Amino acid sequence: MRAFLALLAVVGAVSGFQPRASTVRSPTSVHGFFDKMVKGMEGNYAGGDDSPYAKAKAADDRKEAERKKKSDERRARGYTELKDVKAKSFAKFKYSDKQGEKEEAAAAAAAAKAAAEAPKKKKKNFFGL
Prior knowledge:
By secondary structure, the protein is mainly α. The chain has a domain at 49-75. It is built from 5 helices and no strands. The protein is elongated and about 135 Å long.
């Protein structure tokens, strides 16, 4: 009797850890809840050369070929290295501030004219004498 109860306890414990097969089906898979959404998403990915995906891929390939061509041209020209530079060069402004230069020149000229015309003042003595 004890052996039977021990065997029953062992079988119960072992069967408790066994996974159970589930046969529950989802109502969305049965009734096709997402069918319209899937058709809409797959509509743009129809196969062939006329599909939007194929057209976009071809445009990307053309852009990549142009980029690679420009890169190869730059590489063929070579790069200026520091040891190749013989003279100092400074950055050149693309746009010059002509109005600002004129105002600065006019202000400098006015200051020079005022300094030349100003009469020299006589120094005052200690008590204004």
